[in-house]
Design brief:
Number of helices: 4
Largest sheet: none
Structural class: mainly alpha
Number of strands: 0
Strand content: under 5%
Radius of gyration: 23 Å
Mean pLDDT: 89
Shape: elongated
Number of domains: 1
Distance between the termini: 48 Å
């Protein structure tokens, strides 16, 4: 069963925010500090991915999977390079 998100009331939210701001050991990050964060690996923003089924030889697939996390993205990169080097195909 999917859990339901229970949002705090405005009064509860104000109390939580006030308590957080009063904690000198855990002050909110400044805009400059937030700007230092980098996006985690994952799907690139703005690119539309389409789900499909492709059949690979077992050894090719095993070799790609053996390269670790992100193997599907690496396959996409290989195909993209092929497409760039073979225009009109």
């Amino acid at each position: 069963m999917k859990q339901k998100l229970i949002r705090p009331t405005e009064t509860e939210d104000a109390a939580i925010t006030a308590a957080a701001l009063a904690d000198a050991d855990n002050l909110p990050l400044t805009e400059a500090e937030l700007a230092q964060f980098k996006r985690a690996p994952g799907r690139p923003l703005g690119r539309k991915k389409v789900s499909t089924t492709v059949r690979f030889d077992a050894d090719v697939l095993a070799a790609m999977k053996a390269t670790g996390k992100g193997w599907q993205t690496r396959i996409n990169d290989v195909v993209r390079e092929w497409v760039k080097s073979h225009p009109g195909n």
